[in-house]
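Q: What residues go here?
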C-alpha cells in the first residue's frame, strides 16, 4: 500500500532530524526493579562531555517515532561517558513503553544534553522532594551535592513499591512516603531552618504546586521547581 504524501514528508523530516541533530548511544544494561516498577537503564553516550555537568542535566531521548521524553542522567562517569537513567514504568505512555522494550546492546537516539538550571546551593542544607517520575533528577542532585551529608530527599511512591529499594541500591538519604499527606507531615516535622535550607521540588504538576504552597506557608523562600510528565 502506497504511503500518503503526509507520511512521506514525515519520514523525510524524521531522517533529516536523525542525521543532523540526533546523537547515537548504546544500552549497556537494563535492570527492572519489579517491586517498584522502576527501570534503570545504563547507557554509553560517547558524544557527551560529562565533565561540564555542574548543573543537573536532562537528555531528550527519542522514544517512538516523533515522540521524545526528557530524563535526568545520574551516576555518570565522565571518563567512560556512561550514565544511568531511571524511568517510572507504572503508567501508560511512550516513555514507559520504550523503557520496557529496551535491552542490552540496543541503540538509543538523543539530542544534546541540556541543563535544568538546578544545582545544589553551595552551603545551604539541601532538600530534594518528588515522586517516582523524578527519582533520577534527585539522584543527580545527590551526585552534585558535596558533602552529601547536607542532603535529605523524600519521594512519594506507590504502596506496592519497596520502601527499602531506593535506599539499598541508590541512596541512604532517600525517605519514601506512600502519599502526599504523609510527605507533607514528614516535611513539617523536620523543622528545617528557614535561613539556610534550599528546597528542590520535582515531579507531577499537582505535587509540585502543593509542596511549593506548603513550603511558602511554612515561611520558606529558597524553592526551585521542575515538573515531569510521562
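A:
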Amino acid at each position: 500500500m502506497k504511503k500518503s504524501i503526509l507520511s512521506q514528508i514525515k519520514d523525510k523530516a524524521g531522517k533529516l532530524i536523525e542525521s543532523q541533530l540526533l546523537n547515537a548511544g548504546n544500552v549497556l544494561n537494563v535492570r527492572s526493579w519489579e517491586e517498584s516498577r522502576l527501570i534503570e537503564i545504563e547507557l554509553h553516550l560517547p558524544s557527551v562531555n560529562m565533565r561540564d555537568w555542574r548543573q543537573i542535566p536532562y537528555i531528550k531521548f527519542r522514544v517512538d517515532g516523533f515522540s521524545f521524553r526528557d530524563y535526568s542522567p545520574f551516576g555518570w562517569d565522565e571518563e567512560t561517558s556512561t550514565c544511568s537513567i531511571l524511568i517510572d514504568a507504572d503508567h501508560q505512555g511512550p516513555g514507559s513503553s520504550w523503557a520496557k522494550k529496551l535491552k542490552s546492546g540496543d541503540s538509543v537516539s538523543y539530542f544534546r544534553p541540556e541543563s535544568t538550571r538546578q544545582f545544589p546551593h553551595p552551603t545551604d542544607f539541601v532538600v530534594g522532594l518528588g515522586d517516582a517520575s523524578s527519582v533520577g533528577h534527585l539522584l543527580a542532585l545527590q551526585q552534585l551535592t558535596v558533602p552529601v551529608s547536607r542532603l535529605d530527599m523524600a519521594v512519594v511512591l506507590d504502596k506496592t513499591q519497596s520502601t527499602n529499594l531506593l535506599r539499598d541500591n541508590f541512596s541512604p538519604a532517600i525517605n519514601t512516603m506512600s502519599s502526599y499527606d504523609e510527605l507533607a507531615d514528614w516535611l513539617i516535622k523536620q523543622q528545617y531552618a528557614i535561613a539556610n535550607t534550599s528546597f528542590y521540588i520535582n515531579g507531577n504538576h499537582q505535587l509540585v504546586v502543593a509542596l511549593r504552597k506548603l513550603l511558602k506557608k511554612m515561611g520558606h523562600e529558597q524553592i526551585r521547581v521542575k515538573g515531569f510528565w510521562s
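A: Context that may help when evaluating the design: The chain has two domains: 5-115, 125-227. The chain is about 25% helix and 35% strand.
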